[in-house]
């Protein structure tokens, strides 16, 4: 198993390297001049030249990339052009918040999505199933940020059950932390819940139609336990891939949700850097998110091995 | 790939005339025809058409200038002047929504068009070229997809600057990756198709092959993808505008309307609701359209309806599908007592009829019985209703199929009317079943031990440990070596023969009185078949079970069975003891099956085959169902209901002198 994980980890590295090259090139292909961004258009030529020298902008792009990569490997992603704060530290501050939001969203999605999908699969074509299909279609179409606005309007502004904005660190106040995550994770999770419900429904219908279900029925095993123990586990195999994809979607969408609830995660960091063309921050954040996505996929692969004995290393 | 020169003769034939394996452009039109017959798809198309009209005609239908501020009318509610009220600057919400439609549709169409052009051409290229091009292309696709789409859009916006056009260019580039995958996958599949090779041999240039032959075929999956991508693009446009990096101040977007509403929700809640509802509706329309088109491009059978048993009097003697009038009286007289089941029979199937929801009879008035300790063979070609009959006995018919007449009694208990729970108690405990393909009959993600113990515990109060001991006992009974160790293995770790032993062990878990084996050796290697049959025979003798053996192999029947029922086209055509059936068959179909049976020594002889094939259930021939394939058929065979008389369903049974097994 360790060998399997190590092998998968190694296979991720080339992709990661390509991602970093891609992001680097992308950002260096911009017409934006960081010097002008920092000093303003009216700055003197001498000051500009000095700053460009300082930032190492005169060197060839390949050289710049290598030096960025070397320090990145040592954990140094450079400094923000605006705040001069260390990019690595800013990311370290935000990553936990973003991940806890994304995971909470996934929690909501799984808790809502799986039972809905299973229910639909048990009685396909009935009124209940059609009702569910409509709910799922609506869930897929509702923009998360609008849902966030509505939830905040009803449950935070009008009812006052949850904070309207802000984030409470877990160790400061666990209850406050939980309350501050409820609305954002709901807004985040609904879309994914719909995606998962849809996938679970079709995977379950297929699983319930399999010959082994007939065998178990012919053995007199109760239908309920076939559904719960056999079909569900078999259906989880294709669902897992969807969960992995959705996890990375959740990370991205959480960036928007963070903005609505003023949560200081990676999203806030990134949005600021996008607006200000603060490319060291932008570059660092995107690479870190890519690492998260690749690790999530890796985790999904491992989970796939656990759930599906065929691909498990012997 | 080699192919018949005949098929090369005419490219049109190669490309267009093979409906089975070449989904040509006709399939696409079929897809649209099917799609517009779905009411939801039709409604979505209507809404979309309306939106397009609104988008195009916004300047003429909008009552106000969407950008013109009017501070005297801030935060007004819906009214005559301002249909849906006004915003913080007194701008007309209705007009802004209309203009927002324009922005949303243009933006999504733009990005999807960019994605399609870029993605499809790249996909066609890498798919057709293959090799390094393909590897590099897919690697780049992997990299692009390891960055979430929204994030990539944000990054691209940061790079190429704000503005809707640029943002949607970014989104288009992202879509190109998934369109590329779709196009490539289809090209790879189509490449293997016969007719592309045919065209290549004919000397068409590779690019014209792609565009003339492949493009019509990739259209259906691409249209589905594009429809869903339009919804996604609309959502991304709204998100980017909401974040303030989409549209500029000179255009109106639903997303930026929502962003602006955030500060003024308490003054005018409509401002936060209407644009969101507009986005949701539009995305919903695109998604449902995509779903509808997908369903239409891969039509599936309906089914799923429950088949109810008609409320007729039990034993109602109306002749089955044939609808014969002549000879009914004569038929009814004899028909009443076909082959009277002895009172001590373990299983009695009488006049069992199984139909589909559409009314086709899969099995018509099948009768046979199995005595205690007896082995009964049910034999016939595929599609004759053998397996359906077996499934009906256990109440395990597929959806859309049901018992519509007759009875199945086990030791005096009627099974067809039994409740679910009482039937469950009979399944596995009194009747065990072995299936054709052992590997698919076992759940791939559960250990063999788990599957056996669950079968055991379904009918007993044994503890987990006790059930495990029993399972190990069963595995050694069926000859699985090292049973204790193999309990922890998964089905894929077993060979076909060993897996079938496991399935047999599961069927025996609760000492059933009757074992139904449905083609138990068909999926197995020839060398293993004899072993599994020997095992079944041995177990039957050891455990004193009755055995219902379903097979198309008369050799198996000769080795194992006491009596045999020959089924053809949903009917039992001959039922008698095995020796009699082999030495002096009474039905021409039995004779034909015997003649088609391979026999050991004289292997040089060519095997006789039965001309034609079993007709489908909705097309059973009138009269004797075998008459179109029967060499003895006379005009009298083509009409009327032919009863099972003295174990034979043949008009000419008395006069024919048929040849037995050689």
TrEMBL record, chain A:
Subcellular location(s) of the protein: Cell membrane
Chain segments annotated as transmembrane: 95-122, 134-157, 177-197, 239-261, 281-307
Domain of life where this protein originates: Bacteria
Protein family according to the UniProt entry: Belongs to the binding-protein-dependent transport system permease family.
Keywords for this protein: Cell membrane, Membrane, Transmembrane, Transmembrane helix, Transport
Protein's name according to its UniProt entry: ABC di/oligopeptide transporter inner membrane subunit
Keyword Glycoprotein on entry: no
Topology versus the membrane: Multi-pass membrane protein
Organism, as annotated: Sinosporangium siamense
Pfam families: BPD_transp_1, BPD_transp_1_N
TrEMBL record, chain B:
InterPro entries: AAA+_ATPase (IPR003593), ABC_Ni/Peptide_Import (IPR050388), ABC_transporter-like_ATP-bd (IPR003439), ABC_transporter-like_CS (IPR017871), MetI-like (IPR000515), MetI-like_sf (IPR035906), Oligopep_ABC_C (IPR013563), OppC_N (IPR025966)
Record flagged with keyword Metal-binding: no
Keyword annotations from UniProtKB, A to Z: ATP-binding, Cell membrane, Membrane, Nucleotide-binding, Transmembrane, Transmembrane helix, Transport
Membrane topology listed for this record: Multi-pass membrane protein; Peripheral membrane protein
UniProt-annotated stretches for the region Disordered: 1-26, 297-334
GO CC field: plasma membrane
Domain ABC transporter stretches: 347-594
Matches recorded under PROSITE patterns: ABC_TM1, ABC_TRANSPORTER_1, ABC_TRANSPORTER_2
UniProt subcellular location: Cell membrane; Membrane
GO molecular function list: ATP binding; ATP hydrolysis activity
Domain ABC transmembrane type-1 residues, every copy: 101-290
One annotated GO biological process: peptide transport
Keyword NADP: no
Residues spanning the membrane: 40-62, 104-128, 140-161
Organism superkingdom: Bacteria
Pfam families, sorted: ABC_tran, BPD_transp_1, oligo_HPY, OppC_N
Matches recorded under PANTHER family: DIPEPTIDE TRANSPORT ATP-BINDING PROTEIN DPPD, OLIGOPEPTIDE TRANSPORT ATP-BINDING PROTEIN APPD
Record family assignment: Belongs to the binding-protein-dependent transport system permease family. Belongs to the ABC transporter superfamily.
Name of the featured protein: Dipeptide/oligopeptide/nickel ABC transporter ATP-binding protein
Biological classification of the source: Bacteria, Bacillati, Actinomycetota, Actinomycetes, Streptosporangiales
